[in-house]
Amino acid sequence: GKVMANVSFVPDTPSATDEFGHGTHIAGIIAGAGAPARWVTDGYAGGIAPGSHLVNVRVLGADGLGLT
Length: 68
Prior knowledge:
Layout: E1 3-8, H1 22-31, E2 54-58
Parallel strand pairs: 1-2
């Protein structure tokens, strides 16, 4: 429910799937909820901005490369 839109800027690749997980990792740092970690650690109360909404923008191809 946090991702409001998905966009791919990779030519000939309409999917905005996070092939390498880096974007998913960063999104968790920014907007993560603390509740899923409650049985693992008390040290994580949530991301930097847990109430935020996200726009997923894919800029790297399946090979991990992108153009500027």
